[in-house]
Each structure stands twice: as structure tokens, then as C-alpha cells.
């Protein structure tokens, strides 16, 4: 049994959260470089929360510029136990209109220009990602979204694209054939890295638009997205408060807390000391 520390990563339109007591910004140095911004640390109803605006205050970072390794490593250094990720997404399904909230449970990663692992030369590890989100957090996120009066779907496949451009119509049609439900630019490698850092992770996708598969309509424009973002962001801030209120008073252990136990494959005598040093936060409990 233990206490919760909830890491909240806010995507497009969600640059602040409300209700934080004793809130203060904290700068974190990581061996992976600079995180997106400082972290806003405080308490909501007695629960410690750590908030990061994913694109930085003012939205100065594009999806391919995000240093997800630094973001996740810093969350771990700040004592985060679980991550609630919130991001804007496009819809690939008629039944998921703008304004809908989708709790993703699967991902297809089509990104190609991003560092996707903390591990590699000097210390190799392979974590299981068959079920890439935490069911406990996802269920709570769905309950919280409904309590915030957001139309909500629990369970969906998120197609992660590189960006920053939106899809072509051919790509959008292809992703629908793959049975994808929503599309975005930021969940990968974020979810993969959270798993490597043994942090249970849930993703709430805020639908801002239909992707361009609707051939009778014009393609997606940023102005279309911005129209929906403000309403979605207000709902997302209420969702966070409801999510915190739903947390059990004590945090029971998750299998994800120890997912590295059987993931490290490099023999101890073959591990590179510099690589091991960089992993002090992510995998320190096994490497000390």
C-alpha cells in the first residue's frame, strides 16, 4: 500500500490545471536533456499532483520536438507513481464526433523521428507492451470524464503519426481500414517510455475534428481544431478534478510497478557504466 502521486501531461489546449494547492513550478535536470517545461507541483484534495504542459507554456514545441525521454524521466525523479495523459486527437469514426472523449487502450506507432527507448547499447531491455495502458487508471479516467459530463468512450485504438502535417486522405482511409479509431501526434513514444519507467499510464483523447477521411468535406485546418479546443480543455480540467476525487485513499501495487523485473537482458558484467548512470531514475531500483 502507498500514496498516489499523479503525473498529468496536458496536451494542446490544456496548459494549466485548476484546484492545485501550494502550487509551485519546479525545474528538473535529466540525463536525457531538457523537459518540455518546468513542472507545476501541488496538491488536489490531499493528493500530490505533478503537471507538465507537453508543448511548453505558449505551445512552442511541435510534436517531433518533444523530448519524451526527459519528460518521463523527470516525472520519475519527482516521485510520480501514475501518469494521466491528455491530448487532442482527430476522429476516424463517425460515432466519435468533435467534443467526444476517448480513453485509448491500444496504439499503432507510425512515428519515425523520435527516440523511443531509454535502453539500448550498453544495457538492453525489452518490456511487454501488449497491453500498453493501465486498466485501473483508464477505468478511473472514463468514470471521471463521464462525471465531468463529457461524452466518453472507453477503449479505442490510437494511431500515432509523426506530423506536424495532418494526414492525406489516402492515409486517413488506410488507418480506418486498420480499425484505428482516433489519430494523434504525441502518445508515442510517450506511452512506451512510461512503461519502461514502470509508470502506469492512461490516455484521454479529446476529439477536436474528424480526420480528412470524409471526402465530401474540406481537410482539417488548425482553425477548426482551435474552435473545439477551448471547450474540450474546460472539460479536461474538470475531468482531472473528478479523477483525483475517484482515487482510492491508498494506492495498491500495480504489476506495471515492477515490469522491468524480467525485461533487462544484458548481463551485469557487460553493462556500460555510463548507460547505467543515465538510468538511475528509470531503473534505479534494479541497478543500484
Overview of the molecule:
The structure is a single chain. The chain has 288 residues and is of the alpha/beta class. It has one domain (5-281): Nucleoside phosphorylase domain (Rossmann fold, 3-Layer(aba) Sandwich), CATH 3.40.50.1580. It has 7 helices and 11 strands. The chain has helices spanning 68-77, 135-147, 169-177, 187-196, 222-246, 273-278, 284-287, and strands spanning 5-10, 21-26, 39-44, 47-53, 82-91, 101-104, 106-110, 152-154, 157-161, 182-184, 201-210. Strands 1, 2, 3, 4, 5, 6, 7, 8, 9, 10 and 11 form an 11-stranded mixed beta sheet that branches. Strand 3 and strand 4 form a beta hairpin. Helix 2 (135-147) crosses helix 5 (222-246). The two termini are 23 Å apart.
Mean pLDDT: 93
**Helix residue percentage:** 25-40%
Distance between the termini: 23 Å
Query: Would you list the SSEs in sequence order as H and E?
Result: EEEEHEEEHEEHEHEHHH
Amino acid at each position: 500500500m502507498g500514496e498516489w502521486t499523479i503525473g498529468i501531461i496536458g496536451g494542446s489546449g490544456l496548459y494549466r490545471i485548476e484546484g492545485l494547492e501550494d502550487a509551485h513550478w519546479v525545474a528538473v535536470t535529466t540525463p536525457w536533456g531538457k523537459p518540455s517545461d518546468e513542472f507545476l507541483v501541488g496538491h488536489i484534495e490531499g493528493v500530490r499532483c505533478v503537471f507538465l504542459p507537453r508543448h511548453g507554456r505558449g505551445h512552442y514545441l511541435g510534436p517531433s520536438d518533444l523530448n519524451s525521454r526527459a519528460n518521463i524521466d523527470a516525472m520519475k525523479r519527482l516521485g510520480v507513481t501514475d501518469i494521466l495523459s491528455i491530448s487532442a486527437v482527430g476522429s476516424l469514426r463517425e460515432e466519435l464526433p468533435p467534443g467526444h472523449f476517448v480513453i485509448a487502450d491500444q496504439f499503432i506507432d507510425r512515428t519515425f523521428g523520435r527516440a523511443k527507448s531509454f535502453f539500448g547499447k550498453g544495457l538492453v531491455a525489452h518490456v511487454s507492451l501488449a497491453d500498453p495502458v493501465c486498466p485501473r487508471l483508464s477505468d478511473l479516467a472514463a468514470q471521471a470524464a463521464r462525471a465531468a459530463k463529457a461524452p466518453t468512450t472507453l477503449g479505442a485504438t490510437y494511431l500515432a503519426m509523426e506530423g506536424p502535417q495532418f494526414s492525406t486522405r489516402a492515409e486517413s482511409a488506410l488507418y480506418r481500414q486498420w480499425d484505428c479509431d482516433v489519430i494523434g501526434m504525441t502518445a508515442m513514444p510517450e506511452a512506451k517510455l512510461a512503461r519502461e519507467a514502470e509508470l502506469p499510464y492512461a490516455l484521454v483523447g479529446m476529439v477536436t475534428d474528424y480526420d480528412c477521411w470524409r471526402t465530401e468535406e474540406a481537410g482539417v485546418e488548425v482553425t477548426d481544431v482551435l474552435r473545439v479546443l477551448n471547450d474540450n480543455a474546460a472539460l479536461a480540467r474538470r475531468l482531472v478534478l473528478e479523477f483525483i476525487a475517484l482515487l482510492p485513499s491508498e494506492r495498491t501495487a500495480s504489476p506495471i510497478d515492477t515490469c522491468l523485473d524480467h525485461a533487462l537482458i544484458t548481463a551485469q558484467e557487460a553493462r556500460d557504466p555510463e548507460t547505467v548512470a543515465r538510468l538511475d531514475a528509470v531503473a534505479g531500483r534494479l541497478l543500484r
